[in-house]
Write a structure and sequence with these properties.
123 residues; mainly alpha; 3-stranded antiparallel sheet
Length: 123
């Protein structure tokens, strides 16, 4: 088992950005995040934590698609229950999304914090 990366705190927002881009893309060339889940471990762990199966993404054969922000939050919360292979796969899959979306997510979060600080000092 490995430690959870610091970027995992931003993965739910990254998934949200990816889904926005995928919906905006007319040709549908933008792909969702998916993980190889041959034994169904992620699906089982999320079903144990969440009663609603619709929040657990959807499975297609051996893939687990993460299409909702809440699903990624649940995956991040059960990080240490995932096996090392799933952790490695998740890090590898998120790396390409981090390269394109992490800066935007960080900017938006810090802008919200700055705007709240300005509003507090102005009042």
């Amino acid at each position: 088992m490995t430690n959870k990366p610091w970027k995992a705190a931003y993965w739910p927002q990254i998934v949200e950005e990816v889904e926005k881009k995928r919906i905006e893309d007319d040709k549908n060339n933008y792909y969702s995040l998916y993980l190889y889940d041959y034994s169904g471990n992620i699906y089982r762990l999320l079903d144990r934590k969440n009663d609603d199966r619709q929040d657990s993404g959807h499975t297609s054969r051996n893939y687990f698609y993460v299409t909702k922000k809440e699903t990624m939050e649940s995956i991040c919360n059960i990080w240490f229950e995932l096996g090392p292979r799933l952790q490695s796969d998740l890090r590898r899959r998120m790396k390409s999304f981090e390269e394109t979306h992490l800066h935007k997510v960080l900017y938006e979060q810090r802008k919200e914090e700055f705007d709240a600080l300005v509003a507090e000092t102005n009042s």
